[in-house]
Amino acid sequence: MNRTILRLSALTAVLLARAAWGGDSLDGDLAALLRRAGFTGRIESTLTARLGRPVDTGLADLGRLLWFDKLTGLHSDNTCAGCHVPINGFGDTQSIAIGIQNSNVAGPHRAGPRNQRRTPMVINAAFYPALMWNGRFNAPSGDPFDNSKGFLFPPPEGVTRFPPFDPAHPHLLMAQGEMPPTELTEAAGYTGTRGAIDPLFDQFDDGKGSAVPPPDSSGYRNDPIRQAVLDRLNHSPAYRRLFGLSFPQVAAGGTIDFTMFGRAIAEFELTLVFADAPLDRFARGQTGAMTESQKRGAIVFFGRARCDGCHAVAGNANEMFSDFQNHVIGAPQIAPLFGAGKGNVIFDGPGQDEDYGAEQISGDPADRYKFRTAPLRNLALQPAFFHNGSYMRLDDAVRYHLDARKAASGYIAAAAGVAADLTHRLGPIEPVLERLDPLLAQPVDLSREDFADLVEFLRTGLLDERASAGNLCSMIPRSVPSGMPMISFEGCHAADRHPR
Ligand code: HEC
Ligand code: HEC
Hints:
This protein is mainly alpha-helical. The protein has two domains: 31-42 and 276-461, Cytochrome c-like domain (Cytochrome Bc1 Complex, Chain D, domain 2), CATH 1.10.760; 50-274 and 467-496, Cytochrome Bc1 Complex, Chain D, domain 2. The protein contains 19 helices and eight strands. The protein has helices spanning 2-37, 47-51, 57-68, 80-83, 172-176, 184-188, 199-203, 223-234, 237-246, 248-251, 258-271, 278-283, 292-302, 359-362, 394-402, 404-409, 430-433, 448-461, 469-473, and strands at residues 105-106, 130-131, 137-138, 326-327, 334-335, 371-372, 425-426, 488-489. The longest helix has 36 residues, at 2-37. Residues 1-6, 10-22 and 192-219 have low confidence and may be disordered. The chain binds heme C (2 copies). One heme C binds next to α4 and α6. The site of one heme C has 26 residues, from α15 and α18.
């Protein structure tokens, strides 16, 4: 009897010692890998210094109201929030965005014609030096807070169209904020400025709002659309008063201009920083902030799997888990059917079922199928992955990377969980895989345990708990200054809403 107890306690002592030893070496290993990768866990605290001033909460609040107000869509049927949905980290549940002519629901039950890509999360975009799935809006300086080399936008905007309207404190998002309302399929629609633009515009209008868009929208002028949005704002006494609070020239009777719109939107986006995850706290010395599984997963990520070869953290990556460069990883090419009510963007390629990614901007065939490395923070908030949401489970998106060739060749859209209307067409994958990034050419062999830890790290180790449903829903105003009907946000209760 006594002997058994002795034996048991000896065994316990050994187990305890092992556990302690194992824990220590986990912490030591992870800390060393983070040092090597250049991860500090302090990125969030750099915001104010890099902006050169605190965020202007009044202006941000105006930006928030604009975000939710369909007044800025020329047919009053969409605004940023229709696609950039609060509860999903200001990203989307839809694999491919639904813009104009939608069902006024934001979430899984949204219906209407599809555009071309998935709406990415906007939280933490303050730290992105290159925006969009192909990085087409970017800061050539590599720093979104640095306008010394201008901010680069593809034609028809170009680099010079965006003077640093807040010269002392420029930010890439201020320039980007001037773009979305001009996108025909996202917000403007096809008939909004009939006559104000060129005749080309009307050519695609069948009078029923189901117009087929042009193959190349760069022929359009964006300014007439901006002017029409401004007319709406300038005719709204509520908005004139609100803009007047931040811009003295408006209070003095001047007109609201589009740089003011862009600044208000950007200021709101600058408040959407959620970059204090368990990994950040661990890197700052709080070793208890992560679970053992998260730690083991992080060690796989930065160690054996070398995910940070692209999902980088140091320097211009701003600890966002992206090198902000474009790569071919070869996501399966799902595409909606084209036509009224189904899809309103003509896709690339001979079958019009492909997405050429970065080539659309550079015109260089060497850039075909390249997409920006997706930043990886707060992935738990989004239910769709890759530029077209071809996977609806994080496990699948991770597994894809381990053997891209095999996963892409065996892809079945319905099995990946995508919506039924996106299961009818699949662009060719062979030409994509021919260009596969060398870093993904060799399959990575992970044990079941390592894989589970890796996914756990990505799902919870990089999640900032402040990005909870309650906090995010509380940014939705009860009503908007224009008085227009609110979008219905699935998953958010009226009681959670902002009083204003
Ligand atoms: C129709 C849906 C839709 C609407 C409406 C919309 N967006 Fe987007 N947004 C997208 C999609 C899709 C992308 C990615 C497009 C691409 O890469 O080609 C995107 C990208 C972005 C990005 C870049 C994020 C990143 O990861 O680089 C920002 C910032 C952004 N939108 C802000 C806005 C703002 C501000 C508004 C309102 C003024 C708005 N969007 C309206 C769908 C939408
Ligand atoms: C060759 C560069 C590269 C490497 C290496 C790489 N990724 Fe990626 N990853 C990408 C690119 C590019 C995308 C976006 C692709 C797209 O949307 O078409 C992406 C997307 C993702 C996504 C989806 C995120 C989202 O929001 O859609 C996850 C998750 C991910 N990567 C995890 C990993 C993990 C885990 C590893 C290591 C096993 C890894 N990646 C290695 C380039 C890479």
